[in-house]
């Protein structure tokens, strides 16, 4: 793979349901982006399937070094599901899923995963491992307001997270445990607000980290890191930009050696950080894939990674590590030209 193709493996770009057909063609073929996420509410499995086939059809030696795409969706259930209509079961909210037995939830998640896989979606950005304390409940803007949490105690959340991770893997889709180290203790939504997003409670050894650890133990190979602030861990630094969060706690304390993906770097929570710095800060902190819902930001994100790699040997080594983690995951998924594992 060329240097540009390797950098492209570190970006995931959003494809909105209202975007023109082929709107991401140049991102894959010319900018070498290796990962796509469906956004905006897609109707019908037939449309999603044909789009997924088109996207994977862009893969070539010149575009991506022959490496297949991660094609992702937010299919949590309840109010948060990007794929709807014929061919997609409507999963209940996480709050409702938590009422199911472990075996029933595992079977259900496997069924949802099979529908995703049939539509060409190989990554689900779920389950949510955030614990929302009962004292906050629906006043928690990002999670509780939408019933995205499995419970108000880490034990309940852990049990459901493990079931969903196991079921997704059984159904042939990579789950993503999110939003490390937890969005359950803040009031505002990081997607739309830069205030009210500081967690003054969570520590590096907090019980609320247990659902993430258990999701990883159940086999999750992707963890999403959020953009909230944690005053008792790394004050003033969004989690996705924090080496304390990503490298020391997630990779060090929890022993996670898989792929770390960000929440949307186009979110309001990190809007004060110039676009060209966002990808660099993510990789410097130990992250691997920079997710952006804004396709227009892709050239700037990639250019910044290339420029920093050229002038900073330590950063270039971090890039190499990140690329290798992404390619290791894709090899397990059967997305490398010479993959001997995975099932396609």
From TrEMBL:
One Pfam family hit: Glyco_hydro_3
Source taxonomy: Bacteria, Bacillati, Actinomycetota, Actinomycetes, Micrococcales
Single GO MF annotation: beta-N-acetylhexosaminidase activity
Protein known as: beta-N-acetylhexosaminidase
Keywords (A to Z) from UniProt: Glycosidase, Hydrolase
Domain Glycoside hydrolase family 3 N-terminal: from-to ranges: 4-329
Family: Belongs to the glycosyl hydrolase 3 family.
EC number: 3.2.1.52
Reaction equations catalysed: Hydrolysis of terminal non-reducing N-acetyl-D-hexosamine residues in N-acetyl-beta-D-hexosaminides
Presence of keyword Hydrolase: yes
GO biological process, one term: carbohydrate metabolic process
Keyword Hydrolase appears in the UniProt entry: yes
InterPro entries: GH (IPR017853), Glyco_hydro_3_AS (IPR019800), Glyco_hydro_3_N (IPR001764), Glyco_hydro_3_N_sf (IPR036962), NagZ_Beta-hexosaminidase (IPR050226)
